[in-house]
TrEMBL record:
Localization terms from the record: Cell membrane
Name of the protein in question: Membrane protein
Location of the DUF3817 domain: 18-106
Pfam families tied to this protein: DUF3817
InterPro entries for the chain: DUF3817_TM
Annotated organism of origin: Streptomyces daqingensis
Membrane association type: Multi-pass membrane protein
UniProt keyword annotations, A-Z: Cell membrane, Membrane, Transmembrane, Transmembrane helix
Signal peptide residues on this chain, from the entry's feature table: none
PANTHER family, sorted: MEMBRANE PROTEIN, MEMBRANE PROTEIN-RELATED
Transmembrane feature ranges: 20-40, 52-71, 83-100
Length: 128
């Protein structure tokens, strides 16, 4: 194992799966919070607004995307069951997507660093 190589050693497709999940986690969390606010606004008769159907559809689409990307990341990265369950839980908590994004960014960066180290190591071995 090279000195620069990260122990996670994520292949590029795994890093891409983490990136997709990370990029959808924040919009999913924001849409969840907006949906919660919309459900309160709906109950204020003086406003006469019902943004729930629109925000519900947006949040539903983002949640489905999160679940698809979560399953793909779990499959590619080979998370242990506890880690996969934690990332699932982050989707159903109102602010969980923000925490998931932060954790996924760290994991993605570690995978990119490991991939670059492998690439440099392979290039160095090819030169010798």
């Amino acid at each position: 194992m090279a000195i620069l190589e990260n122990p996670t050693g994520l292949p590029p497709k795994s890093v891409s799966a983490l990136r997709r999940l990370r990029l959808v986690s924040t919009p999913e969390a924001i849409s969840f919070l907006l949906l919660l606010v919309a459900s309160v606004v709906k109950r204020i008769p003086e406003l006469g607004l019902n943004p729930v159907p629109v925000l519900g559809a947006v949040h539903g689409a983002l949640f489905v995307l999160y679940m698809l990307f979560w399953a793909d990341a779990w499959n590619r990265v080979r998370w242990p069951l506890g880690r996969a369950a934690w990332m699932f839980l982050m989707a159903v908590l109102p602010t969980g997507g923000f925490f998931a994004e932060k954790q996924l960014r760290r994991e993605e960066e570690a995978g990119v660093i490991a991939a670059r180290a492998r690439k440099e190591q392979d290039a160095g071995a090819a030169e010798s």
